[in-house]
Amino acid sequence: MTAVYMTQSWRACSSLRLGHSLFSNGLLRGLHTTQAAHKAQAGRYRVTRNRSKPLTYEMANQPCQIAHRKSWNSWNTTSLYEGLREPETVVDDIFIRKFMTGTWHNLFVSEVIIKRQHNMIRIAGIVQRKIAARKMYFLIGYCEELLSYWLKCPVKLELQTVPDKKDVVYKYI
Amino acid sequence: NMAGTLLGRKPVKLLQRFLKSTFCHDVASSSQLSSEKIVIPNRIPRSPTAILEALASTVSRDSSGPHYKYHDDPYLTPGSNLSKRVFSLSKEAGRKAARWIRDENAAFFTHRPDDPFIEAFFPKMTYNEESNLSEETLRELIQKCSVSDAITVYQLSQSKGIELSDNVYQELLELVAYYNCEDPLDEDWVEERWYRQGVTAVRNTWKDNGLAEELFKSLSTKGSAAYGALIRGMAQYYQVDRAWQLYQECKEKNIPLDAGTYNSLIRVASFLRDSFDLRWQLVKELLTSMAESGVSPNLGTLNCTLEALSQVATWRQAKQLSLQVIAEFKSLGIQPCLATYYFLLTIHCRERGPISRILIDILDHIEGKQFEIEDPKDTFFFVTAMDVSRNHLQSLEVAQRVDKLLHTGNNYCLIGDSFKESIYYRHYFALACSTLIIEDFMEIYNDLVPHIYTPEPGVMEEVMKAISTHEAFEYLPQLWSDMIVFEHTSRDRLLSLVLSVLTKYQPSEENKQLTKQLATIAWDVWTRVQEQDETRHNKVSWNGLMIGDLLTTLVQCGEYDKSLIVMKEATTNAHKILGYIPVNALQILNNAAIEKEDAETCVSVAMYGLDAGHQETGEMVKQLQSKLNLSLEHQAKLSSAFGTELLNDSS
């Protein structure tokens, strides 16, 4: 026997649940009769019991704070009027981010910022000082060169080093 | 309407009157202008980067920060000479690794989203059996100077039986002879080129019966171009006998040769004859045969003649001849370049010989001029000029003139490579150190160090000696911290010099802070040496003088407790110290201990003095006894060591 339950949340959306019974492990099939309005949970971190989770400034500010207390991680002109190559740029940015975080193994402590200017791509970020400086130079030369071969345009790295991971922590929640 | 008709009738005349009245002060000139023809100058053709170059010329090297090639971060800023070199080369190694990956996996990098197509980002073409070859491919590769690829394509076309024209053969011969069948270091690897020391051993490296000679034989008509290319290549790689043979062949067959070929033969004349007279005779022979064939000499001829003379520079007539040569070429209208001046300096400013002021004449000639590269040896001029100003003329004024010339316009590009740059600044620095008073010298020091020039340990020793002579102790803290950054703290000569300079310092009431800083330096020397890794292969070991200086400094600057630690270490580990602590250091320590009424230390100092065999130990003991009351143990110790008579005499 199926039961029909009508729920109404405070957001004035209603959903129905059809199922065998409330107490058995029956499968529930749901359908929404109005727009599905879920709680916003993107880019937000759950508070821990003992306030041990470290958050950088970027993580601490939620996506609604973009253009208020935060800015973007990718800067390009693709979204302007007659801006070209929007989807390709997005995919290129994903590639660059994966490449950078993978090559600099466990070393990035901030997001990878990508700015496109004229024909150049400028990649910025904060890196820990876990490896020797000469090894960092090797990685810088390697990344700049390989990315420019891949993306067919000059790539410049602008990294900042930080002695300890804790230096970029803004708060603990 | 009235106004309109008024204006309408004679507007031009009104206008003229109006203009004349407003520019009444220019009436005279305007009448002149109206009679003169306006000449519109021709358009100056500008390169695409002309504006950028003009902007760049307004900015010079900023000595307050590291070179632009280093990453802008404190952790990534180089301190010592070694780290500068390591950082630039490791960055370039990363680039090379990336290029290797691109060329290994060429299939993944062949997409072409760029418009216009940029060849530098595209993987390198490899040529093998299946590739589509033609004469055009070979021509392109020769144009790009990719020697090994051109050779591969040539060999493949031979095996495939593709016909190639004589022109292509000639071009390939020239390429292969110039590079001796080897690829030059890629122009992209700027750091490797910068740090590569250009001194190659002067020996025969020509590939006998190699591809060049094979090509030469396969040519149907061996004209002057072919002979010329082969002779030049052989002379460049010091296969002088074969080159001379070919030259004789050309003479027999009456094949004309061009100026470049004659130049290359003149350059290696020293290897063809033994005595100085014969060498110069050979050069004259070549020049005369050049004149007879109607080949006009060029700047290369001048430079090669002077190079030949510099090989025989110890000959009495070399100087005279060099000046004659320059005068003769000037009459032909050939202006000397920096390489010419370099050879003149090597000929005239010899180590053992009279002082020649030719550099001053040269500087009078070329002051304020901008130079482009005209000869590979141009880059030797500035280093040699600075060397001459330091060692030969010993004049800071001349050195400053040379430095000014180096910094005019784009002349800094002619410094050559990093080795020459460091030697240039080493000479300038050492000369400034020995000539200037300490304040002026420290100005130059603060300007150049550490980003433009990092002093080597030898130069640092000179600076320390200058400080010692001038007793300018206030610069010691800065110099010591610089020495730490430059990684000079593992050089024992430098450390002992630092300690001996510190002993000269007499503390006084006004400079308490300086006293403290100098004491810190002395203690830092101690800790650094003590905490060295035991397994280092060239570790610094103490000697008696250094310990003595250290004790003196610590006591004089009021760090009595620390000096006790040093003394204790010296007595317990005496076998690790080379030699004995000199007696004046012991006396200073003794006096300080007496003042502090520290009998224990005095006794141990006396025992050490006895071991060392210092004569004055007896005096010290007497002084000790008169000033302090010794306990029974101390008395017993001293009497057993020195004998009871000594102790009884003191009363």
From TrEMBL, chain B:
<dbReference type="InterPro" id="IPR002885">
    <property type="entry name" value="PPR_rpt"/>
</dbReference>
<keyword id="KW-0496">Mitochondrion</keyword>
<comment type="similarity">
    <text>Belongs to the mitochondrion-specific ribosomal protein mS39 family.</text>
</comment>
<keyword id="KW-0687">Ribonucleoprotein</keyword>
<keyword id="KW-0810">Translation regulation</keyword>
<protein>
    <recommendedName>
        <fullName>Small ribosomal subunit protein mS39</fullName>
    </recommendedName>
</protein>
<keyword id="KW-0694">RNA-binding</keyword>
<dbReference type="GO" id="GO:0043024">
    <property type="term" value="F:ribosomal small subunit binding"/>
</dbReference>
<dbReference type="GO" id="GO:1990904">
    <property type="term" value="C:ribonucleoprotein complex"/>
</dbReference>
<dbReference type="InterPro" id="IPR011990">
    <property type="entry name" value="TPR-like_helical_dom_sf"/>
</dbReference>
<keyword id="KW-0699">rRNA-binding</keyword>
<dbReference type="InterPro" id="IPR037387">
    <property type="entry name" value="PTCD3"/>
</dbReference>
<dbReference type="GO" id="GO:0006417">
    <property type="term" value="P:regulation of translation"/>
</dbReference>
<feature type="repeat" description="PPR">
    <location>
        <begin position="223"/>
        <end position="257"/>
    </location>
</feature>
<dbReference type="Pfam" id="PF13812">
    <property type="entry name" value="PPR_3"/>
</dbReference>
<dbReference type="GO" id="GO:0005840">
    <property type="term" value="C:ribosome"/>
</dbReference>
<dbReference type="GO" id="GO:0019843">
    <property type="term" value="F:rRNA binding"/>
</dbReference>
<keyword id="KW-0809">Transit peptide</keyword>
<dbReference type="Pfam" id="PF22330">
    <property type="entry name" value="Rib_mS39_PPR"/>
</dbReference>
<keyword id="KW-0677">Repeat</keyword>
<dbReference type="GO" id="GO:0032543">
    <property type="term" value="P:mitochondrial translation"/>
</dbReference>
<dbReference type="InterPro" id="IPR055063">
    <property type="entry name" value="Rib_mS39_PPR"/>
</dbReference>
<dbReference type="GO" id="GO:0005739">
    <property type="term" value="C:mitochondrion"/>
</dbReference>
<keyword id="KW-0689">Ribosomal protein</keyword>
